[in-house]
UniProtKB/TrEMBL annotation:
<dbReference type="InterPro" id="IPR032466">
    <property type="entry name" value="Metal_Hydrolase"/>
</dbReference>
<protein>
    <submittedName>
        <fullName>Imidazolonepropionase-like amidohydrolase</fullName>
    </submittedName>
</protein>
<dbReference type="InterPro" id="IPR051781">
    <property type="entry name" value="Metallo-dep_Hydrolase"/>
</dbReference>
<dbReference type="Pfam" id="PF01979">
    <property type="entry name" value="Amidohydro_1"/>
</dbReference>
<dbReference type="InterPro" id="IPR006680">
    <property type="entry name" value="Amidohydro-rel"/>
</dbReference>
<dbReference type="GO" id="GO:0016810">
    <property type="term" value="F:hydrolase activity, acting on carbon-nitrogen (but not peptide) bonds"/>
</dbReference>
<dbReference type="InterPro" id="IPR011059">
    <property type="entry name" value="Metal-dep_hydrolase_composite"/>
</dbReference>
<keyword id="KW-0378">Hydrolase</keyword>
<dbReference type="InterPro" id="IPR057744">
    <property type="entry name" value="OTAase-like"/>
</dbReference>
<feature type="domain" description="Amidohydrolase-related">
    <location>
        <begin position="52"/>
        <end position="397"/>
    </location>
</feature>
Amino acid sequence: MTITVVRAARVLDVASGVMREGAGVAVREGSIVAVGPDLDGDTTLDLGDVSLLPGFFDVHVHLTGLRSYDEGRMPDRETLAVRAAKDCERLLAAGFTTVRDCGSAIALTLRPLVADGTIPGPRIFAAGPAICQTGGHADTHHLPLEEVRRQPDTLIADGPWECRQAVRQAVRAGADFIKICTTGGVGSERDHPQDAHFTPEEIAAICDEAHRLGRRVASHAQGTAGVKAAVLAGVDSIEHGYYLDEECVAAMRERGIFYVPTFALKTFFERTTDGGHGLPEWRVRKQREVVGAMSASLKLARQAGLTIATGSDYYGPPMRGHGDNADEPIAMVRDGMPAADALRALTLNGATVLGIEDQVGSVEPGKRADLVAVDGDPLRDIEALRRVRFVMQDGKVRVNSH
Ligand SMILES: [Zn+2]
């Protein structure tokens, strides 16, 4: 069994947030067997003056193949799937070795194709269809309801038993976890981020059913009331959480609920707030409303010590392009988060949200060899995350341009 030693000027100990000088990582059969100076192996990859980090996580993506908010005539599903496969390649080239897809049937198709090496891409954890109430965030409000019911990306459910059935259908379709919507959203036409969706009984039914089937529940929840209802009913993560208050973060802390703030959207909202860019008027209006609240929520979450993970909510270029997903930790640092915390959100915390922190998420013996080398030191200059020179996934070199 051959041992490959990957050497770099710096290796990040992500748990402590300390950069170790002049270390190497020994890899055998896809796993890290040793970390430290003076390691011996059959082959050595000396990457030189770079920082070696654990593989990156984006725990809120949508692999949809969409390219704008308004494509006119919707492309056929084959076209969307090929585009989404291209997005997988871009994600991996940008250092993202694992993603969690929060709603897309195409992600279920791509998952085994990445796993068996047919296409390059991050390891995919997929929700498959997102579950919402009639007129909820995952519903397409201007289409006839029957047409939405035929779409594979959404399950509409009303009442606890339909909610249980929807969970069973998502699991039947191959869901690794369950994505629900307990508020309206910026991106859905005829609701509002502050609207609470699903009754407490419905959310509790979803969580009970999902947990009995061994799946975690991620809730799209923007307004305070819908966050609280989701937290109290037993979800495992809050996605977006634009309007958190003290009570929300205290309850999340107490229950160990993860927070995925999708903070890159703040920059996106600011950039597109003057309209144009093909965005409908109602979306721009809601973007303006929520953007002011986002920093305060992230600050509350940080102060409460919640486990925060990076999730860009990107779906495709040019607006929210896969490959630019480092926008998320960079936006967090610009907003005041220490770089060491943002790097933990990007790696170990992402693994924790997925429940695979014993296998990936840090550069430690016993873990899978997912390694990313960047030019510069991201603890001092977070923009270094954009300068990916080398990517190893499961011990295989995927990118090497150093
Ligand atoms: Zn999303």
